[in-house]
Amino acid sequence: MKPIKVGLLGLGTVGTGVVRIVEGHQEDLQSQVGLPIVIEKVLVQNKTKSRSISIDPDKLTEDPWDIIRHPDIDVVVEVMGGIAGTKEYIIEALSRGKHVVTANKDLMALHGPEIVAKAKENGCDILYEASVAGGIPILRTLVDGFSSDRITKIMGIVNGTTNYILTKMSQEGASYSDVLKEAQELGYAEADPTSDVEGLDAARKMTILATLGFRTNVSLANVSAKGISQVSKEDILYAKRLGYELKLLGIAERQDDLVSISVQPTMVKQTHPIASVNGVFNAVYVYGDAVGETMFYGAGAGELPTATSIVADLVAVVKNLKLGVSGKQNGVADYKETKLKSDDQISSKYFLLLHVADRAGVLARITQVFAEFEVSLESVLQQPNPNNPDAEIIIITHDASKAAIQKVIDTFGSLDVVYKVKSVYRVEG
Amino acid sequence: MKPIKVGLLGLGTVGTGVVRIVEGHQEDLQSQVGLPIVIEKVLVQNKTKSRSISIDPDKLTEDPWDIIRHPDIDVVVEVMGGIAGTKEYIIEALSRGKHVVTANKDLMALHGPEIVAKAKENGCDILYEASVAGGIPILRTLVDGFSSDRITKIMGIVNGTTNYILTKMSQEGASYSDVLKEAQELGYAEADPTSDVEGLDAARKMTILATLGFRTNVSLANVSAKGISQVSKEDILYAKRLGYELKLLGIAERQDDLVSISVQPTMVKQTHPIASVNGVFNAVYVYGDAVGETMFYGAGAGELPTATSIVADLVAVVKNLKLGVSGKQNGVADYKETKLKSDDQISSKYFLLLHVADRAGVLARITQVFAEFEVSLESVLQQPNPNNPDAEIIIITHDASKAAIQKVIDTFGSLDVVYKVKSVYRVEG
Fold it and tell me: Residues of the signal sequence (chains A, B) (predicted)?
């Protein structure tokens, strides 16, 4: 039987994992698809570099076009990352009738609809399970597993670096900067950690999750993102004392035709299943009208977990090829236009930590501001601040609109008894 | 466009949910499959009974053959339960070229391979996502999501009734019989709870999970099952004190070509993600060679969660029909024969609670028995028994074979210093 020939763009951590799995699980894979899957050509930056896997040097190339234009290659697997150049390769591969499997969240978050349309036009499959939450098969779960349901909320811990940092801060009472330094030394955080710690990586993944979960053409510009670089160990301490863990959550919500998607550090009730997802693990919590609450948990990154998703996509591509239905199941290009909620319509509980003057009547003045903007309060805790002559007030609100909370904060800015709005967090669970 | 016509066998809780979702989400469903899905005929026990949903009386029938032999029905959805009669209907429906979606774990655990073979023979789809863990799309995750990986272990909390009982016993220190009574009053446990509390329901679900996860023809007879009716509140108390929760776990393991599948109350380390799955919720923990640990969590039963899985299967059937690939993706019939591990080859940690004579040398005598059968110990705790003149010894072993532990227990039976082997549990995590 004619084998399926794969061209691999990139032989870094994940690319190496793909080779390992395709070779190590070859027998299992063949028993499922009925024919051999062969890595035919691999794009590398330097052919002579030594590697942790043995690979026929004739299969290596430093020229991507050797793969894109290769007449015998059926499927291109892209694990090189990057946006502009990579997009060109993928579009050209699709134009030549090659199916594409990619792990590239940046590319899919920015150019997903265009790439999917190109795939459709050419009768090709484009699959990208590995782009979100590494080894967790969450994209096919949203598309196939919940095809019958109306998903109304997706909450994700989809960035391992920030979850590692917040877990360490929570468990050891360490400061953000100390844990970041440690994470960089361990290779869990990059030298320039901006994309992870400022929530941009998570925002890209939430773009993809919301698109598939809500069957709506969400673009990255629709996602508001705030990272963890301003989180203090005091914030985490107060969270724990009130029964919460602080997590960087991507939250996508839908109500009728309106959606909102955001990434921000969020206080999550300790009893919520997502609160106990620790370290570099990822989890995606999905709430459906009919199914209620579900959660999917696993490794969010790493050579083999990510490669598992890529090779599962490869198996799907080969099955579709054999069944003659390639390119028939890419729905994204037809999805509805996104209508965003305004800040008046986005509702949640909030946590606020205020530094205030320590004198009579202050609490009354502050709670009056909340009342003025119709924000009702779930709990209020006032205590002396051990380090300062001022007092601390911790407030958790009932559900309130984002706009109302912003007005409350703005008003505090002009109130002489409020020295500082130290922290504001969304609250879930 | 010609609508897809569905015949529904059964209009109990889950059947009602199917009608609600197909009608309530019709627009969403049509946007995915491109044509209407219509419930054409519904089998009920009594046509005149009043119902919580409004349904055209002309669609109701008390004769299953009205549906099985109906010339226009494309898909039969079976939610009536039962084995012998139901099997006949499903086999006949498949013979007539109708696709089948079923939630019937008993039937699939007992006759899965035969039914799947019949579907294949007739070019029909047979899907049964709802048969295991209600709303959690775990079967398609095993088949598609992890197609590239080699799954080596599946642990499941797949019975909501027993998880509810154990959760209550753990959280409130209540006795088994009190909580069972309460669960029966709340409708979480049946009047005859045997199938749930003795682990038989879980065993059927583990048969299905192991079959799909290991791609091996597991039969129900391959699963050893023990239930929770002998669990005492003391057992749970001791478990918690040592940092464990007691859960009824289905455990399927694979090593090379050998498998073992069992259901038993198991001490799970509190830090393991499955330990905090409480109440009627289900969770399936999957360990793959490449992906590492993953877990899938959600409602295990209930009208709408279960119906979600059924209608997702229905969507898959319609997509396959439109793509012309019906019946091409049912792999089970070709799966490998099951080779079971012997008790010598099944290995885990164990917890033992012994009542022993409270005198010098007893602990030495007991630990000598473990040594004799080469079972090494992780921890030993001896304490006076507040209610009796004898002492209690709690032991957690290192990994030991099931056969060796049985020999240890047998030897204790003939030892005069051991009054009673009070409890023996497998330990995980």
Answer: none
